[in-house]
Amino acid sequence: MPYLKIAVQLASLRMPLRKALVAAARMGASGVEIDARGEIRPQQLTQTGLRELRRLLEDHDLRVSAVGFRTRRGYDNEDEIDRRVAATKAAMKFAADLSAPVVVNQIGYVPAEPQGRQWETLLQALSDLSKYGQHVGAVLAAQTGTEPGSDLVRLVEALPDGGMGVDLDPGNLIINGFSPLEAVETLGSHILHVHARDGTRDLARGRGLEVPLGRGTADFPALLGALEERQYRGYFTIAREQCENPEYEIGEAVKYLKNL
Predict the structure, then answer these.
(1) Can you list the positions of beta strands (E) in 86-226?
(2) Domains of the chain, each with CATH number or no CATH
(3) Which end of the chain, N or C, is less surrounded by CB atoms within 10 Å?
(4) CA-to-CA distance for 105 and 143, rounded, in angstroms?
(5) Angstrom distance (rounded) from CA 172 to CA 123
(6) How far is residue 25's CA from residue 155's CA, in Å, rounded to a whole number?
(7) Beta-carbon neighbour count of residue 82 at 10 Å?
(8) What is the pLDDT of residues 41-98, one digit of tens each?
């Protein structure tokens, strides 16, 4: 198994940016995911601010694994779609300026059949973003979890070749009742980034729950093996949406991945 590139989602630490960078470096991460909606707004960032951010990253020997840009609506929703696409392009340019290969977002509902107005809206917006991403050097990665891998791969393959990829989120898949291993088998080389999250199903309540890494049903040794077979060389970015002590739990997650 090759050396794992481990990153931390800064927003999960719930700290100011500078403190979060110090914490991520102290944990032993080699990369960070930056939130382009909360921590930093690309459209408001000056060139001086960009240089300062690069310097902070260099000071802590950190690279940017991904830029997170989670829009309130997906690209299947026609309401203010032009504004949403323009904002996403700004995030992609920001990612490229930081040498980050991907921008992660939940792209919206993917129809089971490649037809209809919703499909056409989604396809048109993502085709535009695909061409732009190839131009600037940072592409959109659709987060898994709300649809089976077969629906997502159909969409990716309908777009310009290499224009959009996938962010594999095992925890999100489990929470929504899907198999992470099956998703890897289906999505294969389209996986450009991995969110190291875990989850389990609460059968009594009929819903999924996020849990600390290694405590759920995501078989990470098997997932690493399956990804290695497909020559995945991207980051494993640790993220938590709900936890009482994020710095401790994320630090433990870094140790868990390093010990695999």
Answers:
(1) 102-105, 139-143, 164-168, 191-196, 198-202, 207-211
(2) 5-258 (3.20.20.150)
(3) N
(4) 6
(5) 23
(6) 37
(7) 10
(8) 998 899 999 999 999 999 999 999 999 999 999 999 999 999 999 999 999 999 999 9
